[in-house]
């Protein structure tokens, strides 16, 4: 049975995440020490003690989730479970690339810290927003975004998460206008999200340019297993493609539905969400009910996942 490891992005963070794994597995303690050394401050303390408002800042959230997800992945490896293919949602793509050996953990954690900073600085606070649109056809969402943008605003579909859920992003006023128009057009819900920037929209292009300079200064290797890229939903393994796609990803939509279908076409039957939360498990159930999903974020979920794979061997 082929296994896909999928890694969560922003929104999965919570104070205390993976603390029981930290207490139980020396490999997790070593990883957090590596993160603290790489960043020059105690990410460990922030993750386990908060405060929540500091953890929620994107330049803290991104290295925190990457570290928590990589910790879960290393525990799974120690228990004998490794992926055949991997992908991550937005920030989670960096976790997938660490799992695939394309990025070192230290380089990745420093890079995503800067990635968060660059994204925050690309658009002043309050001038960009995002909204989740539920129950409206993709074509209709794109049409409304195009209409609002033609009137001088900036708004686009940026996260194609699962059937019936697409996230839009752009300038605050344009996002609000588009959300209202989509509700009138028949969307079941149009939920304005509490985020600090319009992630994955074209407004993030300044962040992408700055990120490219950072990626120029680190070593990116060919992936040891296939990794599916957010920007095109296709398998990538070459270092050159990985680098190019990471730059594009900052200001391009996340094609999660395509990513999931590519992993299925590869032969993945079981998807393990590696890191805090069960968001991707939920997306995948809506993409295809035949997908079997597990998640690993703490001792109980780890034990459940290990038991599942023992039964199917």
From TrEMBL:
Q: Which domain of life is it from?
A: Bacteria
Q: Which InterPro entries match?
A: Ac_transferase_dom_sf, Acyl_transferase_dom, Acyl_Trfase/lysoPLipase, Mal-CoA-ACP_Trans/PKS_FabD, Malonyl_CoA-ACP_transAc, Malonyl_CoA-ACP_transAc_FabD, Malonyl_transacylase_ACP-bd
Q: Where is the Malonyl-CoA:ACP transacylase (MAT) domain?
A: 6-305
Cite the EC number. 2.3.1.39
Keyword S-adenosyl-L-methionine appears in the UniProt entry: no
Q: Which reaction does it catalyse?
A: holo-[ACP] + malonyl-CoA = malonyl-[ACP] + CoA
* Keyword terms of this UniProt record: Acyltransferase, Transferase
Recorded family membership: Belongs to the fabD family.
* NCBIfam families the record matches: fabD
Q: What is this protein called?
A: Malonyl CoA-acyl carrier protein transacylase
What is the species listed in this Swiss-Prot or TrEMBL entry? Megasphaera intestinihominis
């Amino acid at each position: 049975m082929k296994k896909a490891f999928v890694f969560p992005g922003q929104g999965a963070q919570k104070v205390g995440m993976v603390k029981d794994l930290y207490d139980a597995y020396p490999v997790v303690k070593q990883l957090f020490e590596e993160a603290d050394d790489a960043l020059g401050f105690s990410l460990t303390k922030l993750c386990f003690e908060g405060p929540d408002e500091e953890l929620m800042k994107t330049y803290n959230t991104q290295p925190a989730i990457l570290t928590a997800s990589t910790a879960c992945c290393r525990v799974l490896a120690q228990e004998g479970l490794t992926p055949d293919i991997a992908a991550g949602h937005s920030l989670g793509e960096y976790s997938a690339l660490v799992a695939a050996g394309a990025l070192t953990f230290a380089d990745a954690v420093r890079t995503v810290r800067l990635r968060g900073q660059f994204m925050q600085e690309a658009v002043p606070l309050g001038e960009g927003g995002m909204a989740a649109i539920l129950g409206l056809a993709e074509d209709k969402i794109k049409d409304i975004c195009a209409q609002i943008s033609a009137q001088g605003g900036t708004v686009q579909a940026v996260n194609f998460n699962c059937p019936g859920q697409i996230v839009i992003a752009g300038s605050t006023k344009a996002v609000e206008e588009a959300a209202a128009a989509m509700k009138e057009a028949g969307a079941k819900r149009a939920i304005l999200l509490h985020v600090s920037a319009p992630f994955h929209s074209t407004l993030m292009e300044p962040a992408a340019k700055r990120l490219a300079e950072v990626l120029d200064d680190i070593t990116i290797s060919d992936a040891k297993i296939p990794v599916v890229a957010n920007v095109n939903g296709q398998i990538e393994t070459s270092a050159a493609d990985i680098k190019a796609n990471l730059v594009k990803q900052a200001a391009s939509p996340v094609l999660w539905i395509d990513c999931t279908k590519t992993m299925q076409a590869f032969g993945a039957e079981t998807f393990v969400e590696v890191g805090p939360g069960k968001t991707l498990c939920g997306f995948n159930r809506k993409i295809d009910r035949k997908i079997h999903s597990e998640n690993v974020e703490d001792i109980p979920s780890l034990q459940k996942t290990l038991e599942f794979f023992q039964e199917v061997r």
